[in-house]
Amino acid sequence: MKSIIRSFFVFCFLSTNVFSQNALFIPDTLSGTTFNLDVQNGIRQFIGSNNTPTYGYNGNFLGPTLLINKGDSITLNVTNSISQSTTVHWHGFHVAAMNDGGPHQIILPGTTWSPSFKMRNEASTFWYHPHGEAKTEVQVSKGLAGMIIVRDSTEATYALPRKYGIDDFPLIVQSKAFDVLYQFAVANHEDTVLMVNGTRDPYLQVPQQVVRLRLLNGSSDRTFNFGLADNSNFYLIGSDGGLLSAPYLTNRVRLSTGERAEILIDFSAYTLGTQIYLKSYASELPRGIIGADSVGTSTIVIQEGYYSNFLNGVDFDLLRFDVSPATASPVTTIPLTFNPKVPLLEVNADVNRSIHFSPDTATSGIQGYVDGPFLMNDSSFNFDSINIIVNLNDIEIWQLTNSTMVAHPFHIHDIEFYVLDINGLPPPPEYQGLKDVILVKPNDTVRFITQFTTFSDPMVPYMYHCHLLHHEDDGMMGTFLVIDSTTIGINENIVFDDAVSLFPNPTKNNITIEFLNAVNSDQKKISVINILGEKIYSTQTTENKIKLDMEKWAPGVYVFQIQLEGKVINKKIIKQ
Ligand code: C2O
Ligand code: CU
Ligand code: CU
């Protein structure tokens, strides 16, 4: 017996570090009203002593936790020091479209993007990550992600743990795939390496008292079903957009990619020195959810790599808690209630919309029901198109339906929403707070209600998309404008078709704009907007073909907004 144990350990030591435990990394914090983030290249060893190329904000991997107070006017200076363009999206923030960091706010290598805005969201856990067109998964996987903690005066009145890194911990949970050269791999189902805050096989010393954990699923596609190894209960206190109406006693919290949850665990129930794991009970995930034992609702489709991934459908450990001495003046109680969350009333809705998820069977056949590419309302993401136009201040109900065989976490920018119902039933307690991501399982119908307040912009769109990063990059994303129709006379006149062609693109010196179906005498207006959303040029013409000199313009991305007979068309042009 002894020698078997010894050789087992020798084997483990040589082959992998799976039995070693590493202290959980706690990201540094940035606070105040000016935040400087530098997107950097790095190197880290995740697998033995092999080097893996990484990206990070202000470091090798992941980024600092931003601490922001509601009501503050903040500036974020994001410098791109890597060799490809990126964007930084403030996931969950209610900000103007030009400050949102979606695909249209491109940060070219060597440049700095500096959005300034007022922090309007209530206290909660948010995150920031890249959102470049077809680049999100590769950049997030390589390490670009960070947590944001927003605080406000309401949350401050509750007796909750809020000492960062002492009784209030960020937990960015991710599964990663590596290729044979120890580089991060994407667009496969081989994400077998688990990490929390970038630490493999982590442990965390937790004080023997009430501790707050901020869970973020920052994976590319895997859903986690969090629970404690002894199945004991904890309190779910917050979802994506802030505190629930009251703590909810449960022993599971399921998070799909992009979702957050805040939980309280009372470690005073354990003796000092107890080691207890936070696990994912993936065996309990219904099929169709990535991470469950099978995707697809039919046996005729297979998914390459999925069934050989040993994490799918099994329960596994994520983080070991080591119960340690309590701190001075610990939090020892759980609040009974918080400020009530009052959903908007369905009768007040101005607009009902449906978003339908389907496979692009034209290109992928039956296999497309699990592999994609997937469409939303039969269309794929197009940088230059607007899919939906919302009127400022409208209350809208969106109905999401999924006729694919995979669950998709639906995410929308700008606003937070209340779930009205899932398959006709009222949402369970964990979905009764403010949300910005909701998992829509195969054949599910989910309805939510929201109001599009504060910000309108007739040109710069927000995104809605699937938060499985591979699906998003593959085009499972749409755009919406919020427009103030009382000040701008464009509404249903915005067109989505190609009535104009701009070439060459990319260009070095000049651009030709040709109107394809227009009459020569028609009045055409051309405006050019830079990536900051500023109008830098405009002209009018009656010609069907004009040439613009761009020689003196800085290299970058420009949106050409063309108005023709009251219609508006946006085109992206890259100046080299
Ligand atoms: Cu977390 Cu549009 O993204
Ligand atoms: Cu977002
Ligand atoms: Cu999806």
What does this structure look like?
There is one protein chain. By secondary structure, this protein is mainly beta. 6% of the residues lie in helices and 42% in strands. It has four domains: 32-151, Sandwich (Immunoglobulin-like), CATH 2.60.40.420; 158-339, Sandwich (Immunoglobulin-like); 346-488, Cupredoxins -  blue copper proteins (Immunoglobulin-like, Sandwich); 497-575, Immunoglobulin-like (Sandwich). The chain contains five helices and 40 strands. Strands 12, 13, 14, 16, 18, 19 and 21 form a seven-stranded mixed sheet that branches. The radius of gyration is 25 Å and the shape is globular. The chain binds CU-O-CU linkage and copper (II) ion (CU) (2 copies). One copper (II) ion is lined by residues 374, 408, 466, 468, 471, 476. One copper (II) ion binds at residues 374, 408, 466, 468, 471, 476.
Count of discrete structural domains: 4
CATH-level-2 architecture of the largest domain: Sandwich
| Distance between the ends | 68 Å
- As residue ranges, the low-confidence spans are 1-18, 488-497
Number of strands: 40
The name CATH uses for the topology of the largest domain is: Immunoglobulin-like
